[in-house]
Design a protein that fits this description.
43% of the residues lie in helices and 13% in strands. With 387 residues, the protein is of the alpha/beta class. The chain binds uridine-diphosphate-N-acetylglucosamine. Uridine-diphosphate-N-acetylglucosamine binds next to helix 1, helix 5 and helix 10.
């Protein structure tokens, strides 16, 4: 099959790095980078460190309001699809690149394959929720990472073309996680400044990321910066890998971060995984990091009130808590899940030593499903090339 894959943001580059090599064993892939993310730390690094093929087409859509950014990608993708005439268009996740890629393809009657289909936070205030709902309703293949996602699709009447494939990010975490099991890696992460690396002891720091639109308003930033300051201690600093959009928003609001908060640029995949594995706990609003922390067994405070990855916060074994921006809830969660001191350090060391995550097998299942051809069209869905 001839497939145009549309990527554009950090998590999509990571997912494409997990799928693309497997896909290319039996399909022809044309990689389109929308350029939604363009900074080296958010985009370039992933091509190099994960071996992702250079894009065949770069659209340089860049930043803008949702409408401006989505429109730029739509207008950029359409001529590529007309020229390449693929049998399918592959989109990942829930970003504006996903929405625009799916919409441009569906309007041309080209079947859409949606990876990470069926996730719902049931919060339409999140731009990602709107993007994923629309992409799911346009997709011919819905590659669901979890049984819950399959059920969400069924609840919206989407059953044809739905396949439970597992989580692509787990395939990658299983592969790279093995390389970073030794805590000594912390001293040798190429993108972590040496001064910061020297301040980190395994099990004695918190790893944090904050990038969601919802966490970039001045009021929200005022609260989560205090929340991080509450958790940071000289003997257990917070390492914050800061998205450039959040950095700019903090500067515009004149907010500063407290002492014992070490700030870096966004990090590559390997560093991020290593820092999560050896942390006392993770504090994040990222869906990807939330899952990675769960696979690694690291306690996780989620700076959101809802999540589409409900499995990570459910059940007695869960070490993940939705704390939103509630400072008291965050303090209580960290005291329960990752108490400061020797016990926390031992827990982190034990976890790293016993890390043995199995791949989910998602990449192979997706590639095989596409190899079978376009599923029987339900209702109004059309085959590629049909009038
Ligand atoms: C996007 C996705 C989000 C995903 C995240 C992963 C949407 C709606 N959001 O959020 O779902 O979790 O990527 O990181 O698609 N910026 C830079 N450099 C860049 C890119 C962006 O500085 O390379 C800054 C710009 O100021 C920009 C802001 O970040 O306005 C937001 O970027 P945008 O692509 O709109 O969304 P993200 O917050 O990155």
């Amino acid at each position: 099959m001839r497939i145009v894959t549309v990527v554009g943001t950090r998590p999509q580059l990571i997912k494409a790095a997990a799928l693309s090599p497997v896909l290319r064993e039996r399909h022809v892939e044309i990689l389109v980078d929308t350029g939604q993310h363009y900074d080296e730390a958010l985009a370039g690094v992933f091509f190099r460190e994960l071996g992702l093929a250079q894009p065949d087409v770069s659209l340089d859509a860049g930043s803008g309001s949702h409408a401006v950014q989505t429109a730029a990608i739509l207008a950029g993708v359409e001529p590529v699809l007309l020229r390449e005439r693929p049998d399918a268009v592959m989109v990942y996740g829930d970003t504006n690149s996903t929405l625009a890629g799916a919409l441009a393809a569906a309007k041309l009657g080209i079947p859409v394959a949606h990876v990470e289909a069926g996730l719902r936070s049931f919060d339409r205030a999140m731009p990602e929720e709107i993007n994923r709902v629309v992409a799911d309703h346009l997709a011919t293949w819905s590659f669901a990472p979890t049984q819950g996602a399959v059920e969400n699709l069924a609840a919206e009447g989407i059953r044809a073309g739905v396949l439970l494939v597992g989580d692509l990010m787990q395939d990658l975490a299983a592969r790279v996680g093995r390389d970073v099991r030794d805590p000594a890696v912390l001293a040798h992460l190429s993108d972590l400044p040496a001064g910061i690396a020297a301040a980190l002891r395994p099990g004695s720091y918190l790893f944090a990321t904050v990038h969601r639109a919802d966490n970039r308003s001045p009021a929200a930033m005022d609260t989560w910066t205090r929340l991080l300051a509450d958790l940071a201690r000289p003997e257990r600093p917070v390492l914050l890998a800061l998205h450039p959009g959040t950095r700019a928003a903090l500067a515009a609001a004149g907010l500063t971060l407290g002492p014992d908060i070490l700030v870096t640029e966004p990090l590559g995949y390997r560093s991020s995984l290593a820092l999560q594995l050896h942390a006392a706990a993770v504090v994040t609003d990222s869906g990807g990091i939330q899952r990675e922390a769960a696979w690694l067994g690291t306690p996780c405070l989620v700076l959101r009130e809802t999540t589409e990855w409900v499995e990570t916060v459910r059940g007695p074994q869960s070490q993940s808590v939705l704390v939103g921006r509630d400072r008291a809830a965050a303090r209580a969660a960290i005291d329960r899940l990752a108490p400061i001191g020797e016990a926390g350090r031992v827990a982190a060391a034990t976890r790293a030593a016993s890390f043995d995550l199995a791949p989910a097998g998602a990449a192979t299942r997706i590639s095989d499903a596409l190899g079978v051809g376009v599923p029987a069209p339900p209702g109004r869905r059309r085959r590629a090339g049909a009038a």
